[in-house]
Amino acid sequence: MSDRAGTSDDAAQPWGAGTWTAAPADVRGDGDDLLVTAVEGSDAWRHTSYGFVHDSAHALLAPLADPGAVEVTFDLDYDQQFDQAGLVLRADAETWVKAGVEFADGAPSVGAVVTLGRSDWSVAPVPAWAGRRVTVRASRSGDAVTVRARVDDEPFQLVRVAPFPAGTPLQAGPYCCAPTRAGLVVRFRRWTTGPADAALH
Asked: Which residue, 117, 84, 112, is CA-closest to 98?
């Protein structure tokens, strides 16, 4: 299952299918791609360790089937502290998952923040992914979300299996934010949705 690349039933979502949770500084098309400029200070976090609540990340969301999966591809060409991009699953302000690649402490790291009232954060450094194309996939089924990621056409790696309230309607799609600086521009290449993954492994 680790090399799963979606299924033939996955469908490309037009960028216009989603609604922004918080408006970016700029959004423009470039061929089939979407270029998103983040607002300085944009972020998503609730309470844990830092003591603050931030809910200003730029997430382009549309309803996701339950069970169902969402996949987002973007270029990892950013290198400033806490720059990040990937995907979001969101039920409400206190119930969400963000997964992708965040630049922290001198290197890009793949990981996920799972928020059920309070946030947690799991990361793993992936310095070899810098400057390459990343795909993040989240599959929701039952009481869990499974997050996988890969670079270019390499096999998917398991990032996280996390609890998520069963039966809760949610929206999903690409996101980015720039907690510490202005000028982050993320090139999103693709956004698809489809059936949930058939198995964990």
From this structure: 112
Of 70, 161, 166, the C-alpha closest to 112 is: 161
For residue 83, is it within any domain?
yes
Q: How many domains does the chain have?
A: 1
**Residue 124 pLDDT > 60, yes or no?**
yes
In the chain, the percentage of residues whose pLDDT exceeds 90 is 88
DSSP SS3 for 161: strand
* Predicted local distance difference test score (pLDDT) of residue 2: 44
Question: What phi and psi values does residue 87 have, to the nearest 5 degrees?
Answer: -135, 160
| pLDDT at 4 (0 to 100) | 47
Tell me the C-alpha distance between 51 and 36, whole Å: 28
Question: Can you count the helices (H) and strands (E) in the chain?
Answer: 0, 17
Which residues are CB-neighbours of 60 under 8 A, at least 6 positions away? Answer: 15, 18, 19, 20, 34, 36, 173, 174, 175, 191
- Residue 148 lies in domain: 19-194
Q: How much is the pLDDT for 9?
A: 84
Domain membership of residue 128 (yes or no) is: yes
The answer to whether residue 37 sits within a structural domain is yes
| Domain-located, residue 200 | no
CATH number of residue 46's parent domain: 2.60.120.200
